[in-house]
Design brief:
The complex is a heterodimer of chains A (317) and B (453).
Chain A: E1 15-17, E2 31-33, E3 53-59, H1 68-71, H2 81-90, E4 97-100, H3 113-126, E5 131-134, H4 139-152, E6 159-164, H5 169-177, E7 181-185, H6 190-203, E8 210-213, H7 223-238, E9 249-251, H8 271-289, E10 293-296, H9 299-313
Parallel strand pairs in A: 3-4, 3-10, 4-5, 5-6, 6-7, 7-8, 9-10
Antiparallel strand pairs in A: 1-2
Helix pairs in contact in A: 2-3, 3-4, 4-5, 7-8, 8-9
Chain B: H1 5-9, H2 25-33, H3 47-57, E1 63-66, E2 73-76, E3 93-99, H4 104-112, E4 119-121, E5 124-126, E6 130-134, H5 140-151, E7 158-161, H6 165-175, E8 181-185, H7 190-200, E9 204-207, H8 211-223, E10 229-232, H9 240-256, E11 267-269, H10 275-286, E12 291-295, H11 299-312, E13 325-329, E14 338-342, H12 345-358, E15 362-367, H13 374-379, H14 385-394, E16 405-408, H15 416-423, E17 426-429, H16 437-448
Parallel strand pairs in B: 3-6, 3-12, 6-7, 7-8, 8-9, 9-10, 11-12, 14-15, 16-17
Antiparallel strand pairs in B: 1-2, 4-5, 13-15
Helix pairs in contact in B: 4-5, 5-6, 6-7, 10-11, 12-16, 14-15
Classes of the chains: A alpha/beta (317), B alpha/beta (453).
């Protein structure tokens, strides 16, 4: 019986997130992702130098519709984003923090770019893992926020998000100004994902400074679209398409958007068990389809997925 | 590898007699290659050609049926490694296992409790597909009694679980003509198990510690006259890494190398029921498990797994559709806003999510756009004023709201005039993008002076 090995010609780009002291940053270590020449966990085909990285989301301002089941895990640190980040790293083992500056939204708390920059500095001081920093989604505001953030985190090699088709220039400039990377977001479409990477590199962003977010939908909420788009992206990358060889990042916190994840309905089991499982199952779908980084929300979910990643990376006999 | 038309043509009589209904043998070969014709339609094909062609025309993975009647489960016959290449055909069948050391009333209660892990979701019933009975006592009589108890309480297909041919023989007697699956034949008992399966005409799981061992055992079972096999290479017991690897190797060999000894559906027998096990089950559902046996799965786990399964096994060409209807969001009343969108599931999820997060009580009418999104449906004329009018009438929208005002997606603003004229409703053009709905609805509620439902 001959092993049916697939020899891929392409390889996922190896990307480092965060900068240590020697590089002008203050992280205790860099996070390196990508670099593999194989489909997820299939080391019969090629080498897989790094496991998927498991990070956690920290929002600057907790919005009223934030999932209660996640929020209660942070009951003791609701007063500060930096404390929540610290808890994510020290208690829940996050490999990185994705700091979302949602409070900058003019329709919400409308925090100023300066306030956002202060939060970034506090979080950088509170944790030593690398940071991803996302804006609030309002293009005009984000251009100012990201500029401030870029300077506040100068030299730390954070990845700023989200760059999108049609609105990527200001964030690209902010990322290039102070040695950061960026997260390129596309809406469930392999062609748009590729196009955005081309636009960004044409604009001057180096490929090694780009992570791709193809939009992760949770189970029951369109996961099959994300799953197949990601599989297609990954296959194209392994077949040699350099404009799709950036590592993929998936925000699996979206799992909580599905009402079914946490609705109180005795027939669907205990939401305290179902919610984290919903997120963890979404995370498994993301990793199986090719995710190199996951942004997670619930400590139980990240714990479950951590065990799976360890088991998936080390083979037995 | 499927045969090409030219490969097939070589084996045909090449007389161009036309009796098969196609003018030339080459044209017939092309139809065969496209699976649009049957070899039997050629009256002159030689037996030797038949044998050769039929062997290679078999699907690379055997289709196996377990059980009888409406609840029968089919597994196998998959043709793809990736769902986007075409689709996955047969959903991973979930089997819940019950031990035979319980008394009859306990067993019946366990079967009855399966309804606690069965759910309705987008119009489909999701839950266990099979019931396994495990010969834990080692007493064939107890085993048979347990099987009778299960069989009298459910129509779901059965899996008979024992390595002891004597127990399986007793179990098969109790199972009657219900065509259960036998778990399992292994190196030490394969002759006896194969004989039992053959005599009763039931499918058999062949178990080996490695894929090589499985392949050698399926060859043996095949030589004994069995075709309906399921394979298990301890997928449920090895580290996750090896499970993924071995299930992938097995599927690749069957599909890409046409390796017959592994061209069967796969069985993953779970060893536990923790959430870590549920995660293993999720991975196996996506990557190539045909059947999964689980002990003591809880409602949360089953709901997450069946939802994932439903998603992954959806035909990528045919998006999941939401049932047309008027959906109540945030507990609306007769003065609440009334919106319309299409029945593409993703469209519905996004729009309903945005309406929900607006906190404004609203009605969302979903019309049948044949599963297309708003923009695509509008372009294809599957979402127009006539259709909206039809559903306003059919769904008795006037009974839901007094104001007779409908909010339509910004993208289809062009239909507003015609819609107003045909329906007699006032039309408000909503935002182009659903993400602007919370703001839009809050403003609308403010304008209408709405405080509650």
């Amino acid at each position: 019986m001959q092993l049916p090995v697939e020899k891929w010609t392409g390889k996922i780009r190896e990307i480092a997130i965060g900068a240590v002291k020697e590089e002008g940053g203050s992280r205790s270590r860099k996070l390196v992702v990508g670099g593999q020449s194989a489909l997820p966990f299939l080391d019969i085909d090629g080498t897989i130098p790094h496991p998927p990285a498991l990070g956690m989301e920290v929002v600057d301002v907790i919005s009223p519709d934030f999932p209660a089941l996640v929020k209660q895990e942070f009951d003791d640190v609701l007063d500060s984003a930096a404390k929540r980040a610290k808890k994510c790293v020290e208690s829940f083992g996050a490999d990185f923090i994705c700091l979302k500056l949602e409070g900058a939204n003019p329709e919400g708390s409308n925090r100023s770019p300066e306030e956002a920059a202060v939060t970034v500095k506090e979080v950088l001081a509170a944790v030593s893992v690398p940071l991803l920093i996302y804006g609030c989604g309002n293009e005009e505001k984000d251009s100012k926020v990201m500029e401030a953030v870029s300077y506040a985190a100068k030299g730390e090699r954070c990845f700023l998000g989200l760059a999108e088709n049609g609105k990527y220039k200001s964030i690209a400039v902010a990322s290039m100004a102070n040695g950061h990377g960026l997260v390129a977001f596309s809406n469930l479409d392999i062609n748009l994902a590729k196009q955005l990477n081309i636009l960004l590199t044409d604009f001057g962003v180096k490929p090694e400074n780009i992570l791709m977010d193809p939009l992760m939908a949770g189970i029951g909420y369109g996961v099959e679209y994300s799953y197949s788009v990601m599989e297609r992206i990954r296959l194209a990358a392994l077949m040699g398409d350099s404009m799709l060889q950036m590592p993929m990042i998936c925000d699996v916190g979206t799992a909580w958007k599905a009402r079914e994840s946490s609705v109180v309905d005795p027939h669907l089991g205990d939401p305290k068990r179902r919610g984290p499982l919903w997120e963890a199952t979404t995370a498994m779908a993301a990793m199986t389809a090719g995710a190199d980084l996951l942004i997670m929300r619930h400590p139980k979910s990240i714990a479950l997925v951590r065990v799976s990643v360890n088991n998936l990376m080390k083979g037995g006999v | 590898m499927p045969l090409t038309a030219l490969d097939i043509y070589k084996h045909l009589p090449k007389t161009n007699c036309g009796e098969c209904g196609v003018p030339t043998c080459l044209a017939f070969a092309m139809k065969l290659a496209n699976k649009q014709a049957q070899l039997g339609e050629c009256p002159y094909v030689s037996q030797q050609a038949k044998d050769t062609l039929e062997a290679s025309a078999q699907p690379p993975m055997r289709l196996v049926t377990i059980g009888t009647g409406e609840k029968a489960v089919q597994v196998g016959n998959e043709t793809e490694l990736f769902r986007h290449e075409k689709r996955f055909y047969h959903e991973t069948a979930y089997c819940v296992v019950i031990d035979d050391d319980l008394d009859v009333s306990q067993i019946k209660a366990k079967v009855e409790n399966l309804k606690d892990i069965t759910f309705e979701r987008v119009g489909k019933m999701l839950g266990p597909d099979m019931v396994g009975i495990r010969a834990k006592t080692g007493d064939p009589i107890r085993f048979a009694e347990a099987i009778v108890a299960v069989k009298s309480s459910t129509q779901l297909p059965l899996v008979l679980i024992s390595d002891d041919p004597a127990a399986i023989e007793a179990g098969l007697g109790a199972a009657g003509s219900s065509k259960p699956l036998i778990y399992r034949a292994l190196k030490s008992n394969i002759d006896a198990m194969a004989k039992l399966a053959k005599d009763k005409g039931v499918p058999l799981v062949v178990y080996g510690e490695s894929l090589e061992e499985v392949a050698s055992l399926t060859d043996k079972a095949k030589a004994a006259g069995l075709q309906d096999l399921v394979i298990d290479s301890n997928f449920g017991g090895v580290p996750l890494h090896n499970m993924l690897r071995d299930l992938t190797i097995s599927r690749r060999l069957a599909l890409k190398k046409n390796f017959r000894p592994l061209g069967y559906p796969t069985m993953v027998a779970m060893k536990g029921s923790s959430d870590e096990d549920a995660i293993r089950a999720a991975l196996a559902t996506m990557k190539y498990a045909s059947i999964m046996m689980m002990d003591g799965v809880d409602a949360s786990q089953m709901f997450a797994l069946t939802t994932l399964r439903q998603n992954i096994y959806t035909d990528p060409q045919k998006p999941i559709q939401v049932k047309p209807g008027i959906y109540a969001i945030n507990n609306p009343g007769e003065s609440s806003p009334f919106l319309v969108t299409t029945n593409f599931s993703l469209t519905y999820f996004i729009v309903s999510g945005d309406v929900e997060s607006s906190k404004i009580p609203s009605h969302l009418m979903v019309v049948d756009s044949e599963g297309l999104s708003v923009m695509t449906a509008f372009a294809a004329d599957k979402f127009n004023a006539d259709l909206v009018v039809k559903f306003l009438t059919e769904l008795k929208a006037v009974e839901k709201v007094k104001h007779k005002t409908i909010v339509i997606p910004g993208i289809v603003s062009m239909m507003s005039g015609k819609l107003k004229e045909k329906s007699g409703w006032d039309v408000i053009v909503g935002p182009r993008d659903s993400s602007a709905l919370p703001k839009f609805l809050k403003e609308l509620a403010g304008k209408w002076g709405l405080t509650g439902p």
